């Protein structure tokens, strides 16, 4: 009877082979570069938090999804379900050590015990940016600008970012006499794309107790037109001009000045389901694959840090859902198939020549080439198969005469073109110029 344990992972969790992890790392590195270019700095927070920290401002759905347990010290703890709530705790705990406004990025795993489906897992990576300590429209615009820049940098250009303002919606609900049901209404509207208008209407009738009010809410969230014409209609339905509509006008003016306004649409149905959002909110969709849902979302959450401190610290942020984004890229055929970070492989035709191979490898590395030596003199087709799996472009072959003259043959493994009589200098120049 075998005592072997069957190797398997939990549902909603995954292993990543090199091709998948290289793509993930590459995307994260490019996103990080963009975040840094706008002045955001890195922080980190623990995976585990006290449950009261994570769930003090949440709804019942969030509590159902959180991974929660009692640890060995009989403490009620939970795994973070996003990076924003831990950041609010971080801000309160380190407030005296931070300069304001403080701009942070945090790229890390989070956990939610929801039902796994396409592009949605129980363990996934979020790429967050947040600015706290300023209520300026400049900060709202900057986050929206960074979202577009980060996605464009990783080759995701065909996107639309849907923008809304919860404050305008709440004023509208107050004007309608439904403000006391605002959180329920917001969560119901947030499900529009997922469940369809009929179910949303049924829920709204239950919350408002009035078909006419429900019809007006549906009219509000269904407003169509260009950015400013929609804003004008929402402003009228909410009772007239106010700080919230002026905020949206200011943001749009900055978009126009930056020449990026065509990426953004004003969408009154975007509300974001989490309770802590209070102002501008937004979601990002792949135009060729809207069904996968938002790949980057966020908003303003002026009162979140107030749960942990007396001072009111305004904040705004966004998060790229890396796993959902990669799932979308895979469906669109845009995913990377790179199997290693190597530029070249030095083939081993004779173990007796291993010192010569290592000398060439050292020379190439000094020139910035990523190279390895095949460790054993196996059959050449076996060595070729390994380099193919790693996705390398270049192979280096050396016979006895070439070793004696300090030269070698450089082979393009994709085109089969051979370059003989090469030295380290010439080979490095050719290899580096061919990098993509």
Number of helices: 17
Strand % is: 15-25%
Radius of gyration: 27 Å
Structural class: alpha+beta
Largest sheet properties: 8 strands, mixed
- Extended strand count: 16
Mean pLDDT over the residues: 92
Distance between the termini: 53 Å
Write down the overall geometry: elongated
Q: What topology, given as strand order, has the largest sheet?
A: 1-5-6-11-10-9-7-8
Approximate helicity band: 40-55%
The parts where pLDDT drops under 50 for at least 5 residues are none
Q: Which tags fit this structure?
A:
436 residues; alpha+beta; eight-stranded mixed β-sheet; five-stranded mixed β-sheet; 17 helices; 16 strands; 42% helix; elongated
Summarize the topology.
Elements: H1 18-37, E1 41-42, E2 48-50, H2 51-55, H3 60-65, E3 68-70, E4 76-79, H4 84-93, E5 102-111, E6 123-132, H5 137-153, E7 159-165, H6 166-176, H7 182-190, H8 192-195, H9 197-208, H10 211-221, H11 227-237, H12 243-258, E8 264-266, E9 280-286, E10 296-300, E11 315-321, H13 322-331, E12 344-346, H14 354-366, E13 371-373, H15 380-390, E14 394-397, H16 400-404, E15 408-412, E16 418-422, H17 424-433
Parallel strand pairs: 1-5, 7-8, 12-13, 12-14
Antiparallel strand pairs: 2-4, 3-4, 5-6, 6-11, 7-9, 9-10, 10-11, 14-15, 15-16
């Amino acid at each position: 009877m075998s005592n072997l344990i069957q190797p398997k992972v939990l549902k909603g969790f995954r292993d990543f082979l090199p091709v998948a992890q290289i793509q993930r790392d590459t995307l994260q590195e490019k996103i990080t570069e963009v975040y840094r270019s706008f002045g955001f700095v890195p922080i980190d927070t623990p995976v585990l938090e006290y449950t009261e920290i994570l769930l003090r401002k949440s709804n019942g759905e969030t509590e159902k999804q959180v991974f929660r347990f009692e640890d060995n010290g009989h403490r009620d703890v939970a795994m973070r379900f996003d990076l924003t709530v831990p950041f609010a705790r971080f801000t309160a705990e380190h407030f005296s050590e931070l300069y304001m406004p403080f701009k942070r990025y945090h790229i890390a795993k989070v956990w939610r015990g929801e039902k796994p489906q396409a592009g949605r897992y129980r363990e996934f990576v979020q790429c967050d940016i947040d600015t706290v300590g300023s209520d300026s429209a400049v900060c709202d615009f900057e986050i929206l600008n960074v979202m577009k820049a980060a996605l464009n940098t990783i080759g995701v250009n065909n996107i639309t970012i849907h923008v809304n303002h919860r404050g305008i919606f709440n004023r509208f609900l107050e004007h309608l006499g439904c403000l006391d049901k605002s959180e329920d209404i917001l969560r119901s509207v947030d499900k529009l794309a997922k469940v369809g208008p009929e179910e949303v209407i049924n829920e709204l009738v239950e919350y408002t107790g009035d078909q006419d009010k429900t019809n007006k809410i549906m009219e509000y969230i269904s407003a169509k037109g260009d950015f400013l014409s929609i804003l004008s209609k929402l402003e009228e339905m909410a009772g007239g001009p106010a700080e919230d509509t002026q905020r949206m006008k200011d943001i749009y003016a900055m978009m126009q000045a930056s020449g990026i306004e065509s990426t953004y649409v004003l969408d009154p149905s975007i509300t974001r389901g989490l309770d802590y959002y209070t102002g501008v909110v937004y979601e990002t969709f792949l135009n060729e694959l809207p069904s996968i849902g938002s790949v980057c979302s966020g908003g303003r959450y002026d009162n979140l840090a107030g749960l942990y401190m007396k001072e009111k610290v305004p904040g705004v942020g966004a998060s790229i859902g890396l796993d959902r984004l990669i799932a979308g890229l895979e469906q669109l055929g845009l995913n990377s198939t790179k199997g290693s970070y190597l530029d070249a492989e030095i083939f081993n035709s004779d173990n007796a020549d291993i010192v010569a191979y290592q000398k060439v490898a050292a020379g190439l590395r000094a020139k910035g080439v990523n190279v390895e030596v095949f460790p054993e003199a196996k059959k050449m087709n076996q060595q070729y198969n390994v380099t193919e799996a790693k996705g390398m472009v270049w192979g280096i072959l050396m016979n006895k005469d070439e070793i004696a003259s300090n030269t070698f043959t450089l082979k393009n493994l994709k085109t089969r073109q051979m370059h003989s009589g090469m030295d380290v200098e010439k080979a490095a120049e050719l290899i580096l110029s061919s990098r993509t």
